[in-house]
Write a structure and sequence with these properties.
The protein is α/β, with parallel strands linked by helices. The chain is built from 13 helices and 15 strands. The strands form three sheets. Strands 9, 10, 11, 12, 13, 14 and 15 form a seven-stranded mixed sheet that branches. The protein has a four-stranded antiparallel sheet with strand order 1-8-3-6. A four-stranded antiparallel sheet has the order 2-7-4-5, covered by helices on one side. Helix 4 crosses helix 5 and helix 6 runs parallel beside helix 8.
Length: 351
């Protein structure tokens, strides 16, 4: 399971980080206040600022593992959320190339500024007035994301997640032919948390891999239970959602095959449901993994077809055998001729 940010506590007067020591992580202050001190060439330390809840400290460790540029001491009892260099690097690697380049340039220049500014007293005064403020913006949304990510990890361990099964119906035969497994989270304090909120966070932290494997295993068990009770086990399939992070593991086909085999389910009874974004973001890796899965007998579904980068080129390039038309087109097709024609076109394209 991916390493997440961890919570750390410090008592008033404790040194949280010391100037000159190697920096390996940054922190977001959740509770309490700290002071930032700069030690000059003469050995005297000068207080250049204070920080409170929501502020980030030690952020230059996210750029490199160079020595700390300042000392941070707790003024009050503090609770901090740690962000490791490894976690930051993984998130940055998954960012848009322009955003990634811009972030790296800005942070590297900031470190250079701090290093140069620590040489003279005049520069220290400028630093305390302007430069120190640069890296300590309020991080309200980041704090909430970190907290929710930590709670999602706990949800995985404590069986707070569940699957809801949406039936798939063959209209011509008027019978249920399979189910889609939908992940849901009932938080013990927050209540129901929308997948639109926790799935992106699970993807950012890498926890989606463990969550997806859990979902597949539970879905396979449910399919077997349903089949045993109805007597139509071999006639039903289960569709399970996967993300680009799942494919990034490098062992995706093997992991999926092992789970299916351990649950005594035939590969033909499993449909892997993916998004167009995954295909565009990692085309070669996705094609290789999906081809192995198709060769094993699994079905490949494209979810919400028509809303992203739909094109003939990737339909030809990838081993897709099921298109799921976005629901907004289906909802509109009986009262909108344009939507109806679009649905007809997608069906013809699929055939």
């Amino acid at each position: 399971m991916a390493t997440l940010q961890t919570q750390k506590t410090y008592k008033a007067g404790d040194i949280i980080m010391r100037q000159g020591e190697k920096g390996e992580s940054a922190f977001i202050i959740e509770e309490g206040r700290v002071e930032i001190l700069l030690e000059g060439p003469d050995g005297n330390a000068q207080v250049v600022g204070t920080r409170g809840p929501g502020a980030m400290i030690g952020e230059m460790a996210l750029v490199d593992n160079a020595p700390r540029t300042a000392t941070v001491r707790a003024l009050e009892n503090c609770r901090l959320l740690e962000i490791t260099h490894k976690d930051f690097a993984r998130r940055l690697d998954r960012a848009d190339p322009i955003l990634r380049m811009t972030t790296q340039v800005i942070l590297t220049r900031y470190r250079d500024t701090l290093t140069r500014s620590s040489i003279t007293g005049r520069d220290q005064n400028w630093l305390s007035a302007e430069a120190v403020e640069l890296g300590y913006a309020q991080q309200g949304r980041a704090v909430e994301t970190i907290k929710l990510a930590n709670e999602f990890e706990a949800a995985l361990k404590n069986n707070q997640l569940s699957l809801h099964y949406q039936p798939m119906i063959d209209l011509a035969a008027n019978r249920i032919v399979g189910f889609e497994a939908l992940m849901r989270w009932q938080h013990p304090e927050r209540g129901f948390i929308s997948p639109g909120l926790f799935i992106p966070i699970a993807e950012e932290t890498g926890l989606i891999v463990a969550a997806s494997q859990w979902a597949l295993r539970e879905a396979c068990k449910a399919l077997k239970r349903i089949g045993d009770r109805t007597g139509h086990f071999k006639d039903l399939f289960m569709s399970v959602n996967f993300s680009s992070m799942d494919f990034a593991t490098g062992t995706f086909p093997e992991d999926i095959a092992n789970i299916i085999s351990s649950c005594d389910i035939a590969p033909e009874q499993i449909h892997l449901e993916i998004t167009e974004r995954l295909l565009i973001g990692q085309p070669d890796r996705a094609r290789e993994a999906l081809t192995l899965c198709r060769q094993a007998g699994m079905g490949i579904s494209i979810d919400d077809f028509g809303t992203g980068y739909s094109s003939l080129s990737y339909l030809h390039y990838f081993p897709i055998n099921i298109l799921k038309i976005d629901q907004k087109f289906i909802q509109e097709m009986r009262r909108n001729d344009g939507a109806l024609e679009l649905v007809r076109s997608i069906i013809a394209l699929g055939k």
